[in-house]
Amino acid sequence: MDFLKKYGIEINNKKLLMIALTHSSYANEKHLEHYERLEYLGDSILQLIISEYLYNQKDLKEGQMSKIRASYVCEEALNVYAKDVGYEKCIKVGNGLHGIPNNTIIADVFEAILAVIYLDQGFEVCKKYVYDVVVPHIKKQESLFLDYKTIFQELIQTSQKSVVYDIETVSEDSNNPLFKASAKVNDIILGVGIGKTKKEAEQNAAKDALKKSAR
Question: Does the first or last residue of the chain, that is N or C, have fewer Cβ atoms within 10 Å of its Cβ?
Fold first, then answer.
């Protein structure tokens, strides 16, 4: 529970931090609160801080800022930050997950912890934490994630068309949800993808469409 100390942060509300580390599967078994409300808040805070950082880079246009932000707040990127912070082993999940949080949960918890820092320590401490953990990756221009949706949309836009993603729920199991996405242009399916989240399914559908278009 001391993974934030290396960033000079000492959370006073330990109960709130425990909630941030508790997945709904564990919470349902133990009748506890889980992190989803905190995750919602943390997601917005992260978007704001990264948006402000990119806005202050005077040479970036709106489209560039959106593309860069998407690359550094996605699930894959959040998992990289999780390794830097080192909280994965503190996450509590239910028996159905065999005590092992998946990448989606780990990413969610990063945002939930961010919300705890904000509520407990204030915005400036929260901002410094993001600058310590996230911004160095942006400065190094590390490729943490390839945004297939953006690449595919840019390819399609050259012909003045847009991409629509249809989502189908394959599995409603809360512990192992599964979604199927179809990337469509003018009602024609160009790619199909499966993922544990809707976003992941859409990315895989775009990746499939790009792969087919390159043939």
Answer: C
DSSP for 73-108 reads SSHHHHHHHHHHHT-GGG-B--GGGTT---HHHHHH
Residue type, 145: F
Residues annotated as part of the active site: 43, 111
Radius of gyration of the chain (CA): 19
- The first and second tokens of residue 166, run together, are 């249809």
Contact status, residue 25 vs residue 96, Cβ threshold 8 Å: yes
Asked if 35 contacts 23 with a C-beta cutoff of 8 angstroms, the reply is yes
Residues 6+ apart with CB under 8 A from 45: 111, 114, 115, 118, 123, 126
What's the pLDDT tens digit per position in 44-70?
999 999 999 999 998 888 888 887 888
Exposed e or buried b per residue across 102-112, where buried means at least 16 C-beta atoms within 10 angstroms of its C-beta: ebbbbbbbbbb
